[in-house]
Amino acid sequence: MCSPDQLQQQQKQEQQQQSKDATTVVTNEKWVLTKRPNGMFSPENDVQLKSETITPSNLEGDEILVQSTVLSCDAFIRTMLDEEAYHGVVPIGGTLPALGYGRVTAAGPDAKFKVGTMVSGMIGAQTFATVKSSEAFRMMTFPFMSPTASLGLMGLTSGLTAYTGVFYVCKRPRRGETVVVTGAAGAVGSIASQLAKSTGARVIGVAGGARKCSYLVDDLSLDGAINYKDADKSLDDQIEDLCPNGIDFIYDNVGGSILDSLLSKINPSGRVVICGAVSQYSGNLNKGKVEGPSNYLKLAERGAEMKGFNVMQYIYKVPFALCGMFYLYMRGKVEVTEHIEEGIKSFPFALQKMFTGGHIGKLLVEVNGSQ
Q1: 324 contacts 167 by C-beta, under 8 angstroms
Q2: What pLDDT does residue 137 have?
Q3: Per-residue pLDDT tens for 214-233?
Q4: What rounded mean pLDDT belongs to the chain?
Q5: 3-class secondary structure for the chain?
Q6: What is the share, in percent, of the chain residues with pLDDT greater than 90?
Q7: How far is CA 119 from CA 111, 135, 165, 289, in A?
Q8: With contact defined as beta carbons under 8 Å apart, do 119 and 38 qualify?
């Protein structure tokens, strides 16, 4: 019988052999940043698709080679393209960041994952990613859910962000209260709207365009929808019509003038949760030009509160959030709509849709659907 040390050494040798048996050279297609975006992100001007060859047998230490299966398009990616960024800066010539999952096709001698294992993490906008196995995670799967749930409903940047903002940051919505969610047709917003609805609150969603507003009311069964692009009725008039008794809870993903208008209707003891400000990501953020709310004194006048958060600040709550989300999903209280683009070539164009209103729900790119 082998000793533990001998068994560990044998496993390492097997992994090395598997790596050597893998394809001698693979071709990786990746999107790299060629220049800093000037305002709105432009797939044609700011990034370029490049090819490179990778030799799997050259992996060192705990490195693994991951063949991408599905990538997530998230708003934070745009913030990382600026010269100074909270989430980290992508250098010129660097690969566009992207969370996703894929299959390990080769592994270094000290890697903690074997060939064939499905892993997730920051693998980037590319077909093959070389990452340290210590920086990747075994992909989570959930009963009665598709594999993409790990990036959407049960994913850190979408479902778990929504759950944290609704239930953990401020006092949660209560039955009978009026909740307004901005960016309500996006991944985080659509999930947050349903979570707020599950509390018995009256929920109003804010979105751009008639199609998205119909989705909020007809598909998500919200109590109303505000179309900030409506040419016939102003934003303030729509808020007044749908929130005649004021607003108790705001879940904000957008910022700017929409948040400003909503603050004018905040109720005493109201709560404002700041999740993001997508309206400020295309040229204002990191440039000292963020448009803040001029109505912030309504918080003082009415004894309301505003609190921002990053889901990583509540990482210790993730196990509870996963259980809570799964419970609500099984009860039919929450679901996620997916918008899936095909192929690595579509990635920057999918990312652009995050800011031009070209999608509903969770935006994903399927790189290799055969896995």
Answers
A1: yes
A2: 96
A3: 999 999 999 999 999 999 99
A4: 92
A5: CCCHHHHHHHHHHHHHHHHHHCCCCEEEEEEEECCCCCCCCCHHHHEEEEEEEECHHHCCCCEEEEEEEEEECCCHHHHCCCCCCCCCCCCCCCECCCEEEEEEEEECCCCCCCCCCEEEEECCCECEEEEEHHHCEECCCCCCCCHHHHCCCCCCCCHHHHHHHHHCCCCCCCCCCEEEEECCCEHHHHHHHHHHHHCCCEEEEEECCHHHHHHHHHHCCCCEEEECCCCCCCHHHHHHHHCCCCEEEEEECCCHHHHHHHHCCEEEEEEEEECCCHHHCCCCCCCCCCCCCCCCHHHHHHCCEEEECCHHHHHHHHHHHHHHHHHHHHCCCCCCCEEEEECHHHHHHHHHHHHHCCCCEEEEEECCCCC
A6: 83
A7: 12, 10, 27, 39
A8: no
- Residue position matching structure tokens 């993730």: 318
Contacts 24+ apart (CB under 8 A), 131-134: 131/63, 131/64, 131/66, 132/61, 132/62, 132/63, 132/64, 133/62, 133/63, 133/64, 133/107, 133/108, 134/62
Q: Kindly provide the b/e burial profile for residues 100-112, where b requires at least 16 CB atoms within 10 angstroms of the residue's own CB.
A: bbbbbbbbbebbe
Q: How far apart are CA 3 and CA 25, in angstroms?
A: 36
Two tokens, residue 347: 């990635």
Q: pTM to 2 decimals?
A: 0.90
Structure tokens at 18: 């598997």
Are residues 130 and 67 in contact, defined by beta-carbon separation less than 8 angstroms?
Answer: no
Q: Six-digit token pair at 67?
A: 């063949």
Determine the Cα–Cα distance for residues 22 and 198; give it in Å rounded to an integer.
49
Would the pLDDT of 1 be above 50? no
Tell me the pLDDT band of 312, cut-offs 50, 70 and 90: very high
Using DSSP bridges, classify how beta strands 63-72 and 99-107 pair: parallel, antiparallel or unpaired. Answer: antiparallel
Phi and psi at residue 268, in whole multiples of 5°? -55, 135
Q: Which two tokens stand for residue 196?
A: 């707020």
Amino acid at 136: A
